[in-house]
Amino acid sequence: MTTPAPTWSFLGPGGTFCESALRQVAPRDVVLDPCQDVPTALDHVRDRSAVAAVVPIENSVEGGVNATLDNLVAGAPLVIAAEMAVPITFVLAGRRGTRLEDVRAISTHPHAWAQCRGWVHQHLPEAVYIEGTSTSAPARALAEADDAADAALDYQAVLCNPLAAEQYHLNIIAGGVADNPDAVTRFVKVCRPGRVGEPTGADKTTLLVQLPHNRAGALLDMLEQFSVRGVNLTRIESRPVGDSLGRYRFSIDVEGHIREERVQAAFIGLHRTCPFLRFLGSYPRLDSLPVVVPAGTSDKDFVVARSWVADVLDGRTL
Ligand SMILES: O=C(O)C(=O)C[C@]1(C(=O)O)C=C[C@@H](O)C=C1
Questions:
Q1: How far is the CA of 253 from the centre of ligand 1 (A)?
Q2: Which residues form the signal peptide (predicted)?
Q3: pLDDT tens track for 41-52
Q4: ipTM topping 0.95
Q5: Distance from the CA of 263 to the center of ligand 1, in angstroms?
Q6: Helix (H) or strand (E) holding 255
Q7: Hey, what domains does the chain have and what are their CATH numbers?
């Protein structure tokens, strides 16, 4: 009996940067499940119609991707299993015959627009922006618009992945469009939670934590849970809880794996002192750089210290 090919959801349609990220890690026989937005892609993992989703989480120009950060806190728990980075450059593409001077309106994903605003301002200062659900959705719509419907489309060009321009047979009006040529977006592969795997020595852990309300020093106390255990933070972002002003959750990446003692100890401290804590996965870090474990915080240090306590309790140590 052959096992069916796994289905992976992602922000579609085909040709998004998200699909480029998925291709880095998905098995060859993957069944693609392109979704119209990030929450739908994540819900397909929750309802078991997909085994994994690939979604953007952090953009080097725009920062955290709120659609992903907010969904990971809201629905049934999911965990990050891998991270991928995709260098981002755009092309300005249109239907055959469209010239730069014909472009009065451009559609793309808001993050893409944020990364190309300067270029557009310089080359098409009059062009207006039409929001798209992804970089490739307006590309596909432009390609599918027949001449009769063309008048109904309110844009003449899109900013998209060069792969999308190719896939939808659009003409490239301008290539290498980007205000920052080194822009990178970090994507994550997200799965349903299961038994946590083993550490590789070069891991990252993602979590969400909410501070106790209205308490002086609450943020400092939370950060100390990491610093006293030698756990280094690589990202921290605040997101409003949503129910009233002034209440925030923090989305945090730390170096290390939840199977490591010092990371576990930090989680235990947070669990004792914060009203909300969600573990969002321990996974190999992209750059494979081994995590530096400060003196006194290695697993061995914890084991030795615990056995000293056991000796005290048993009356073996004075
Ligand atoms: O629309 C796409 O192609 C996506 O993969 C989404 C996304 C994002 O959310 O940031 C990813 C990379 C680019 O920065 C622009 C858009």
A1: 21
A2: none
A3: 999 999 999 999
A4: yes
A5: 31
A6: strand 248-255
A7: 1-86+184-194 (3.40.190.10), 90-177 (3.40.190.10), 197-318 (3.30.70.260)
